[in-house]
Amino acid sequence: MPVIDVFNIAGEKVSEIQLDEAVFGCEVKPHLLHDVVVWQRANRRAATAKTKSRSEVSGGGKKPWRQKGTGRARAGTNRSPLWRHGGVVFGPNNRSYAMDLPKKVRRQALCSALSMKTSENMLKVVDSLAMGDPKTKQYVKALGALGMENSLVVLGDANDNTALASRNHARSKLLNVNGLNVYDILKYKGLVIDLKAVELIVERLKS
After folding, report:
1. What's CA 83's distance to the chain center, in Å?
2. CA Rg, the chain, in Å?
3. 8-66 pLDDT tens trace
């Protein structure tokens, strides 16, 4: 089982922790990471693109000219897709891009992402990230002490001051442990997790 150091917000080692190998030390499977990222991004798409069909554009009603004798092609409506300002054929129509992905695949991909950060030494466990004041300066200083300026920060217990302090930091993102996901783990260079979050992550992925 991987054993890593536990730090405080000053960047000082305070103890060690033995991580669960099934969650933080499993085989990294890049194809699962790819599948889950595609699934997450597809489900986030707004799907608001919309064009008007021939039944929705304005105009029509009257036949533009008589059927025969004009020398022109017959026409029944000026809303035809062949005409300027006519309807669009097979255009986007608020389709949903949502995909289905088995829960087992999502769980394995999350374990792969956590294991990858652990093997790359880009995972830092802290005893607590609770802050007395909602100051961005203190939050930035804490991440700097840990060497994790560009990182995803995951908390097991919500802390209002830490949440407020993190909002103006563009190079990191703060998540509650329930919101932990593959896309955000891969997006940021580092991963900072507190002890309570480690416990909840193992409980969630091994249940």
Report:
1. 43
2. 27
3. 999 999 999 999 999 999 999 999 999 999 999 999 988 888 999 999 999 888 899 99
Determine the 3-state secondary structure of 124 from DSSP.
strand
Residue position matching structure tokens 């300002």: 85
**Mean pLDDT, rounded, for 73-98:** 92
DSSP 173: E
Name which of 62, 64, 60 is nearest 72 in CA terms. 64
Domains of the chain in sequence order: 3-46+101-206 (3.40.1370.10), 49-95 (no CATH)
CA angle, residues 14, 18, 19, in degrees to nearest 5: 115
Residue 178 is which amino acid? N
Length of the chain in terms of residues written: 207
Pairing of strands 3-7, 123-126: parallel
How crowded is residue 204: how many other Cβ atoms within 10 Å of its Cβ?
A: 14
What value, to the nearest 5°, has the Cα angle with vertex 204 and ends 202 and 207? 95
SS3 182: helix
26/119 Cα distance (integer angstroms): 10
Q: pTM above the 0.85 mark?
A: no
Ramachandran angles phi, psi of 155, nearest 5°:
-110, 140
Q: What is the DSSP string of 106-174?
A: HHHHHHHHHHHHHHTT-EEEES----SS--HHHHHHHHHHHT-SSEEEEESS--HHHHHHHTT-TTEEE
